[in-house]
Design a protein that fits this description.
The chain folds into three domains: 46-141, Immunoglobulins (Immunoglobulin-like), CATH 2.60.40; 147-246, Sandwich (Immunoglobulin-like), CATH 2.60.40; 253-383 and 399-406, Sandwich (Immunoglobulin-like), CATH 2.60.40. 9% of the residues lie in helices and 39% in strands. It has two helices and 28 strands. The protein has helices at 3-35, 363-370, and strands at 46-51, 59-65, 74-82, 88-90, 93-95, 100-102, 107-113, 123-130, 136-141, 147-152, 160-167, 175-184, 189-190, 195-196, 205-207, 212-218, 228-235, 240-246, 253-263, 266-275, 283-292, 295-297, 301-303, 310-312, 316-323, 333-340, 345-351, 405-406. Strands 21, 22, 24, 26, 27 and 28 form a six-stranded antiparallel beta sheet that branches. The radius of gyration is 40 Å and the shape is rod-shaped.
């Protein structure tokens, strides 16, 4: 066969290939047309996968495909996120960096730095924008992780609080607890309070699905009573747990009766103290003082004893019998102060004269009288001092004391011990 014949065969072969390609294109285009589909005039892309890793909320991966029918490369310029709240957020950091070229028929996975922890278990939409034509969007639901928090603030021990943390059974992953922050009123933040067990980035506490842990959090909230605080639990994975609580209010005590009397030339003073029904904790009474002018006196003996302290439950009263020689101060004004371990105080200013008084009690007296079976040392009603064995010729009782004033002040003698095996437990407060 000559050279001309070979050339003719090659030419016919090429024509056959081209004709076959054209016929295939026509058939395919006709099928698309029959389906109502058209080949895009401009390049377009598709998102084939959107992945939110359950063990790290700081990023997500989006896979972008440039279909073969695009017939030219595309350049991804931006990745945006539409949150469940309708907010449009542009991703600032990606790997690889944008703009990114993707050839026709190729796909690329883009890692996007965006913290989605606040949208766990909710749908978010990711939008990919390209330079040459139409972008793409994809909606997916992030992994569900649920932390259940409950806190206990004990008004008797305002140097810490207990926090129970539960990782719900339906959570997508175990949690690595790494610290606790507190957000106070006004936006002030207490960072990384001391806890037991210890929660830290270097020593996280592993909490499996369905498990709970009780955490003792050291924080002195004595001066932060009756205010709101938001507890924030942090994890290595990036999830956050939030709980807003109000700390208990102060213990409120009142001096409801003061009496001066003498028995066999021994001089006594009786002071009756009432702990209000709405007090969040017992009053631990530790001191009684009498101030006359610039001088302050302490009774020689107090019964029942206030050493180290006397516990007075809410909605209860007690009368303290104080051995104190008041004879040299008759006719003078004296300020009686009753102090508690945590700094709660009550004051009453009276005239030092033999006698007693029952101020108008109102609801307080009713509350006291309704209680039965009070502990020894407590009185069910506010009564005059016991003068058993009173000798004839002694002075009678005279009404002399005005209604008591009440006041709550700062720390008296706080007990900082806590239920911990640690020695010398500190109470630091690191403020951001």
């Amino acid at each position: 066969m000559g050279g001309g014949s070979r050339a003719t065969l090659v030419l016919l072969f090429l024509v056959g290939i081209l004709a076959s390609s054209l016929l295939t294109f026509m058939i395919t285009s006709g099928y698309w047309y029959w389906l109502g589909k058209v080949v895009p005039e401009k390049p377009s892309v598709a998102i084939t996968e959107l992945l939110f890793p359950a063990n790290d909320t700081s990023y997500f991966n989006v896979t972008v495909l440039n279909p073969s029918y695009s017939m030219e490369p595309v350049h991804v310029e931006r990745v945006l996120v539409i949150t469940p709240d309708g907010e449009l957020v542009e991703v600032e950091t990606t790997r690889p960096r944008l703009p990114l070229e993707i050839s026709a028929g190729e796909k690329a996975t883009i890692s996007c730095d965006w913290d989605w922890a606040n949208y766990t278990g909710r749908e978010v939409t990711v939008v990919v924008a390209i330079k040459e034509g139409s972008g793409a969007s994809f909606t997916a639901r992030t992994p569900l992780v649920k932390m259940l928090l409950s806190a206990t603030f004990d008004a008797s021990t305002p140097f810490w609080f207990m926090l129970n943390i539960t990782n719900a059974r339906e959570s997508a992953t175990a949690l690595s607890l790494a610290g606790i922050d507190l957000v106070l009123e006004g936006g002030r933040v207490v960072k990384n309070v001391d806890t037991e067990p210890k929660l830290a980035i270097g020593e996280p506490y592993k909490l499996e699905q369905g498990a709970s842990v009780l955490v003792n959090c050291s924080w002195n909230w004595l001066e932060y009573r009756n205010k709101t605080v938001t507890v924030v639990v942090k994890t290595i994975e990036g999830y956050r747990g939030y709980l807003t609580e109000r700390t208990p209010g102060p213990v409120v005590i009142r001096i409801t009766e003061v009496a001066f009397y003498n028995v066999s030339q021994s001089f006594f003073m009786n002071v009756t103290v009432f702990n209000e029904p709405y007090s969040p904790a017992p009053a631990k009474i530790c001191n009684i003082t009498i101030t006359i002018g610039n001088d302050t006196y302490v009774p020689e003996r107090v019964e029942p004893s206030i050493k180290p302290y006397y516990t007075l439950e809410p909605n209860a009263s007690v009368t303290f019998n104080c051995l104190w020689n008041w004879s040299a101060f008759q006719g003078m004004n004296a300020t009686i102060k009753v102090s508690c371990v945590l700094g709660y105080e009550a004051e009453a200013t009276v005239n030092v004269t033999a006698g007693t008084v029952r101020p108008a009690l109102g609801a307080a007296k009713k509350a006291i009288c309704s209680r039965e079976g009070d502990k020894a040392g407590k009185k069910a009603a506010l009564s005059s001092p016991c003068l058993s064995g009173r000798q004839s010729g002694e002075r009678g009782l005279l009404l002399c004391a005005p209604p008591a004033r009440r006041r709550t002040l700062t720390l008296c003698a706080p007990a900082r011990c806590r239920r911990s095996s640690r020695r010398g437990w500190p109470l630091p407060m690191h403020v951001l």
